[in-house]
Amino acid sequence: MKKIIFVIMILMIAGNCFAYQIDPWTTQDTVLQLTFTISFIIDVWQTYTFLYSEKYQKQNYYETNLILGENPSKVKLFTYNSVCVLSHTIISFLLPQPFRMIWQCIWIAVEIYAIRNNYEIGVRIKI
Question: The whole model's pTM is what?
């Protein structure tokens, strides 16, 4: 059911965007999208680390994403997050300015908040 609602929301947004002429993609859009994607990957990496690292297994950390559930499988984790990045990029491309920039900045802020929260509870990733 959650997947159906997600797909319907994306289709509604995409449908509304086709009513407008698509604004050209700018360097600023690329920088914002890369910033979102990198921050999103860091968040996913933190999630993977605390879910599947022996060090964090003893601390009873769990995922708070309602769609993924508390302990998603690796396949579910990476499939969901891959779809999210792809969807975010498509929506960003379709949105007219200034909504595109607002959309990207909101999601960058959401990801930074998640990364900071993970860091504060002690989740560390190794590069």
Answer: 0.79
